[in-house]
Specification:
It is built from seven helices and no strands. It is mainly alpha-helical. It has one domain. The protein is globular and about 40 Å long. The two termini are about 25 Å apart.
Length: about 130
């Protein structure tokens, strides 16, 4: 029977990770040319003012849900750039119609902006499977 591997406690808290996570997200948002509405849906935000505060660096702590969402998005970004080493193609993939059953002819971004964190997970899982 397999036992879970203990993860080392790095001492990093959600507060410590908030700034770097958001900076990484906003870099990804720029690369993917995400609208504010798309950014809000991907982050699970209901408030545009919160998004603007975060963009301005005014954040003390983001929720675990938001950290999880950003983690999936960064994994998606990394996987796309491994699969499609041309930066322009990798960034365009997000909005391109996709014939894979998971997407049903819509883009990965269409699937991801449903607002459900589970949709981020399945896109990440799909890309990881494509990588082998």
């Amino acid at each position: 029977m397999a036992h879970p591997v203990a993860q080392p406690n790095t001492g990093a808290s959600a507060t410590d990770l908030s700034g770097p996570a958001l900076r990484a997200f906003f870099g990804l948002a720029k690369a993917w040319k995400l609208s504010e509405e798309e950014q809000m849906k991907l982050l699970g935000l209901a408030s545009r003012s919160t998004l603007h505060a975060w963009k301005a660096g005014r954040v003390s702590k983001i929720s675990r849900d938001t950290l999880e969402r950003i983690s999936y998005l960064l994994g998606i970004f990394k996987a796309i750039n491994i699969l499609l080493p041309d930066q322009a193609r990798a960034d365009a993939w997000m909005r391109a119609p996709n014939s894979a059953p998971l997407f049903g002819g819509k883009s990965a971004l269409d699937r991801m902006i449903s607002g459900n964190v589970g949709d981020l997970y399945v896109v990440r899982q799909y890309l990881d499977a494509q990588r082998g």
